[in-house]
Design brief:
The structure holds 3 protein chains of 3 kinds. By secondary structure, chain A is of the alpha/beta class. In chain A, 26% of the residues lie in helices and 24% in strands. Chain A has 24 helices and 52 strands. Chain A is globular and about 100 Å long. Chain B folds into 2 domains: 225 residues; 132 residues, no CATH class. The chains are: A alpha/beta, B alpha/beta, C mainly alpha.
Amino acid sequence: MDATAQKPTGTPQTTTTPERAVGAVLVVGAGISGMQSALDLAEAGFVVHLVEKSPSIAGTMPMLDKTFPTNDCSMCILSPRVVDVGSHMNIKIHTLSELVALSGQPGNFTATIKKHPRYVDIDLCVSCGRCETVCPQDVPNPFNQGLDTRKAIYKPYAQAFPNAYVIDKQNCQECGTCAEKCPRKAINYDMTGELVDIPVGAVILAPGFEIFDASLRGEYGYGIYKNVVTSLQFERMLSASGPHQGHLVRPSDGTEPRKIAFIQCVGSREPGKERNYCSGVCCMYATKEAVVAKEHVPGLDATIFCIDVRAFGKGFEQYYQRARDEYGVRYIKCMVSSVKELQQTKNLVLKYRTPNGKLHEEQFDLVVLSVGLKPPAGIEALAQTAGVALDENGFCQPGPEPGSTTRPGVYAAGAFAGPKDIPETVIEASAAAGYVSSLLGKSRYTLTETKEPVPEKDVSEELPRTGVFVCHCGINIGSIIDVPAVKNYAKTLPGVVYAGEFTFACAQDSLETIKKRINSQKLNRVVVASCTPRTHAPLFQNALREAGLNPYLYEHVNIREHSSWVHRDQKESATAKAKDLVRMAVAKARLLKPVTVTHSEVNRNALVVGGGAAGMAAAMSLSRQGFGVHLVEKADTLGGRLAHMHRTITGVDTQKLLAELTGQVENDPNIHIITGAHITDVSGYPGNYRTVVRTRDQTYELVHGAAILATGAREVTPEGYLYGQHPGVITQTGLEQRIRGGNLAGSQNIVMIQCAGSRDEKRPWCSRICCSHAIKNALLIKEQQPDTNVYIFYRDIRVYGKLEKYYTEARRQGVIFIQYEPEDPPQVIDAGDGKLAVTAPDPTLGYSVTIDADLLVLSAGVEANTDNEELSKLFKVPLSAEGFLLEAHMKLRPVDFAADGMYLCGLAHAPKLLDETLVQASAAAMRAATLLSKERLENVAITAYVDEELCIGCGLCVKACSYNARYLEEYTGIARVHETLCQGCGACVAACPSGASQQKGYEKGQMLAMMKAALL
Amino acid sequence: MKSYALKTGPGDVNRALTSFLKQLLERGVVDAILVPRATRSGTSVVQALVKDPVAMEGALPLAPLAMQNAARQVSSLTVQDPGQKLGVVLRSCETRALVELVKLHQATMDNLLIIGIDCPGTFEPANYKKLVETGNFDPEQWLTRAAMGETAVNDTDVRAACALCRHVTAEHAGIHVGYVGYVGIDPTKELLVQVQDEELAGALAELGLAEYQVHASRDETITRIRAAREEEYRQQAAALAEKTGTLAGTTDLLAACLRCHNCRQACPICFCQECVFAGPLFKHQPGDYLGWAQKKGVIKMPTDTMLFHLTRINHMGLSCVGCGHCQSACPVGIPLTVLFRSAGQKVQDIFGYTPGRDVGEELPLATYQVSELEPR
Amino acid sequence: MLKKSLESFGINKDRVWFRFISASEGKTFAETVNQMVQSLKKLGPNPTWTAWEL
């Protein structure tokens, strides 16, 4: 192996932006990665063609039950994002489609897309589900990993987008029943595919991954023993939307398991089998699944068999500790040699050797195989079409820049670039969008569409004239609720001048009818009683808009989920309830007022705080995308921690990178650098911040639209192990300097101790980078002085993804790894003569070993800067318990703060490696660009407002607000709302005792009217 | 803390204290003083803001009458920085309410010198008036007896809330004037003046006050009064709880409520510009009333009386200091003191919160702790 | 807090339910609503419906 075979420079080369580039981008793969890239680019002024092989977007994440480390429900956090993608005017979604050819140059490609037939017309299908109920053909359901069946005509899952059925032609008998029963005549067996040529400026490949085929590991009995399942099957078993509605039962007999084993690294970390990578997610998902399973079945015994516990991400180590200490998940560090089924009970006997060498046999009710991630089937063909090279494992071969491929203008993101978890995928996706946005910056807004708004009628002087439309939803509502009766009842309600009914209110022709009625009946309030407002209210609101009515003169009633579905067996009561709900909505609708969306202007400069690798890379990306940057650094020179580094594990020469980055930043006319700077005040709102920066002799007031915090972190100063007392005890950074200076001569034995400042009571987090640093330095030592012995005392070796191969290489080169337990750490004594003696128990040998060390290197870890607290107060952004900056959402918003306009990257976010920092910097820059590229920002419409006559300025609303959107006006003391920051959550309204705080569209009078109507 | 004796003479208690306050004004320790002052007829005592030292004449700082909770007046004076140092003579229920108002941005204590006074209780205004008019009230004699916890004059005792109040001394006072518990020492001979900080102590030393050793009997008496009143409160709260244990009982208790909003007007915590119940939200359509009457057969007018009190306990219960001015203001005699104090106590207990204890203590609903998510 | 206040006013606190149910836990939601309905049925009609002097 050659660690330096690919010599990445670490930073994007100065790419000249093509003057006549196409302002459209092709994104292949619509999983979480592709969706993120698409959204970012579409928000920043590009048209995106999102090409997805399967019938629906969103990828694998909808299959997951909950996500670590927050235990958020996967679907709940994902579906708003799916709605955003699905409803974006400038994202063109091509499902059941493949890239079949790609010609041209960066800035000017022609992509040929093959669109396979769906056999269901998306425009006609309203997803009523009638077809599914009549289809005779059962097929194993891939969404539930074959644990149950679906029909040959199906929707992959309830929330799938596009919200339309699809025919699985391979399994379809073409009996014609569904086509006949379809009330919308949407089914056509004879649909054919087509080839489409699309001009695009750049391409992002995000085809994702598939799971390892567990049957290839025969010793575990997958596919033979019923109670051996994959982790993805187990995920479905836990899920409330899974085959057992979240009841955890064994496949063999439907009983609740009491004892579960997880076997790790199934299809990962197999040096001999071309799978010499770590999938990077399995330790955590197994931990999560064990915790969730324990919540499902109190008293459940869960054991995880693993080599190392690789809990390296932000908050992961703490999650693992909780799983082990609070939930009692058992971790056994060994590999299971065989799984055998007991004939009677179908229980499974696992044979394994514990670390002390003893052979054990233990029975379990259920075995979960933690299968790894591998490149998806067909990846070779895609790579060939796109003209990119793959690495030895079939993942994308990185190009010269992070995120790039071997073909210029084609970028890679997500698991295709190497196995990784969701937040890193999202970061990479935003970063890839950033590279594209840098390349195509000049073509922003050349192809995007905007809608001409219909002039709005003024209805303020009119009496309420309400129109009520009741939907049958095929048979979903109509077969239970007496829709005509509800419609006739609605006509009797005060203010109602028109009532109508539809088979499918959401169908295009129905929407046209609503628009016509608004005009012909002079309606100024509209109520639709149908299904869920979550997906459908925007549709009807849009109809109002197009008919010239303010979209907030609309009230939605859900008589499907709230009535016909839940009261299936009580038709009369269901009808009565539907009437109640309609009466309430009509009562509220009478009082509705138009809500105007306000806008704020955007300053097109960004502030980047921190002039280290992250800050400089973010500044460069923003500049290339066409924005101005104020780069503010506390120290007198740029560089940050990069200045102390030598080489990365993948072989990047960091000093060269530093020189390049500094040179680029300093010579860039778009970048205004202030060093020796101290920020004293921050005010304003997204699009318009004002930051006061002081240097020794000057004060600047910077105006900027967005801010990126990239303030870095610092190396822990270790305690103990004779650090600071003996000259032979140094940190990894110190070692790196010695290696660079070639100062290792005379060191025959070099000992490293991992976690010397991480994963303890004082610093409970894992510093993520130390294992890679130690292995990198060990390899460098071996390169300089092959005869030097290197010993590494570790707790778990946490190299992940493609870095696994360096661990293998280090062992191959004779670096000796010795595991220790935190209760029994290595003991270090001064052995005289400048030498040290390091003693520790060796679990594999069973007795203590003592090593005479010339040099003891402590992997000291990373901790947050102490001035983060000040930063947090100035920018009003939160910190984690560990003192690092806290992002808006650990999974899906890893570079955003909760408040719009603020972003973060680099070590300030969490410990990470240099290339990860550079990628995150591009991601943060891209996220900032989605804001900076807008002419003006549309504020949330349903914001809170204050009745000034009623407000007395008690400040309760200010304390209740999570978005810094509330403040007390200095002179009058009265509370106010920052329209730009308010998210319309309503917390301030609840906090206000006098009714001075109100929320547009949810005013107290309106809500009270609903309640009165309910109690009538 | 330093203790001093303020010499008084027979018939001179209030005057001695008044001239002490006058000196504070003259010497510029404070720029203005808020102090109770007798009305012309002497049958009432109201809050007065004194700028001219001469006008300190006629102040009755120790009179057992509080027409309203003076925290409301302090709020009016300090909601924005008055730009002057203000002295305010307050009793415990007033300082505690003030602390709550500070948390609610309705007052500030930055430029404030609280001159706390011992308060064994105050009379209902009507009773005080009657006692003065009938010549049955000798202020000095009352102070001497009240100092031992005997507050009743003939058959007339202090307000219901005061008879259940455990707070004899005023919290958060920069200067505190006391007289309760002087066994053997007549409060008509000297008052106890206690000072918190050194600078003020220096200023007082210049006034010629002698340092003083506090008699142990003061603490003993206060403890005794407190215990007796706590017990009385417990009994009354238990008796009331029996009644409010059922909806019928509570309904009966509140049946006479006219929703005149006097209680909320008198409440020092109810700080809203206008009560939500006074606004348009609760002005229903005529048809609504008839609809409800149709449904139930008969409804009380005005409506929403129970909801009004429930809403009020939800809005101010956490900050209720138990001053009982709500009850004094009620024209129909609803026993609001115990109802609100005990209901308030229950919600305060959830958060381990004591209203009026500390300005630094956050209002429970303005903070969030993970532990609060635990089921209880 | 609300429960305590209601209790102080003689309104049965079991007529108000607070549960944290995530959007994914449809089943738990349904079960909880069913439990609530059962328990309310046991409690009988709310006396405020018949009290005239509220």
